Each structure stands twice: as structure tokens, then as C-alpha cells.
Amino acid sequence: MNRLQFLTEMRKSLITTTKEITLPLIGDELEGAKSVADKIVGVKWLKLEGISPSSFLGIQDRFIKNSSILIYSDGEQLKAYEKVCSSCQSLVQWIAYDRKMKCFSCDKTFDVETETGDLAFKHYYIREKNGEWFIGV
Question: CA neighbours within 13 Å on the CB side: how many for 104?
Fold first, then answer.
């Protein structure tokens, strides 16, 4: 091994060692930053008991923190929406055969699978941590 190869190998080894040492520290700092950002914005993460993307297909209605929430699963991911029309404040209905949410007061619809439509309402964030699912309210 000549000097150039040795120095190249030393550089690679030093970079790898630095990554292995700093990655857990950076990960912890990012987790802390996420929790601080959640506190600033006012998001509180609540555990969704018995729910995962593979546990059901379609929708489940939940009542969380005085809000009616529709949780949709396509088998791979979860989506959550408040079931109140932002235009008229009416309760929206799930149309199962169409896979759409509809406000009968405004006659507006929203397709949950493609996330298209003229119906506007609140979207909730969902995240997974250690095999458990949480909703941000």
C-alpha cells in the first residue's frame, strides 16, 4: 500500500467513524427540536389505540378532543380529517360507495384517495413511533 492509498483509506475511515459517532447525537437533537416545534405550534400527540395502516381498510370514525375525526387507511398509510365543512360548519358525511366525503349543505365533495375536491376541512397529521400511531391535535 502506497502513501496515497493509505491516506485515502484513513480519510474514509475517519469520515465513517465521525458519522457513526455524530448520527445518534444529531438524531436526539432533531427529536428534541420536533417536540419544541410541536409545543410552539400547540400540537399535542395522542395515541391511536388499536390502529395501524394494516389493521383495517377504509375508514374509522373517532371522536378525539371534542372533534369528529375520520381516519382513512389504504393498507399502507393513514390519513385523518376533521368531519366538519369549513365553509358552513356542517358535519360532512362519508359516502362509502364513492369513497368520498360530502357536505350536503354546500354540495361539495372531497375524494380521500386522490385528495382532490372542492370541500375544505382540517387535515390532521399522523405519525408512527416504535410501532405505535399518534395523531396530532
Answer: 4
Alpha-carbon separation of residue 71 from 57, 124, 130 (angstroms): 10, 9, 20
pLDDT at 57: 78
What is the mean pLDDT of the segment spanning 57-64? 83
Q: What is the CA radius of gyration of the chain?
A: 23
Confidence of residue 30 (pLDDT cuts 50, 70, 90): low
Nearest to 126, CA basis, from 73, 75, 67, 86 = 73
Count of residues in the chain: 137
CA 62/CA 14 separation, integer angstroms: 51
Q: CA nearest 126: which of 82, 83, 78?
A: 78
Model confidence at 106: pLDDT above 70:
yes
Report how far apart, in Å, the C-alpha atoms of 22 and of each of 16, 35, 109 are.
Answer: 10, 20, 48
Backbone angles phi, psi at 129, to 5 degrees: -145, 120
Q: Note whether 125 and 54 are within 8 A (CB).
A: no
pLDDT interval class at 94 (50, 70, 90)? confident
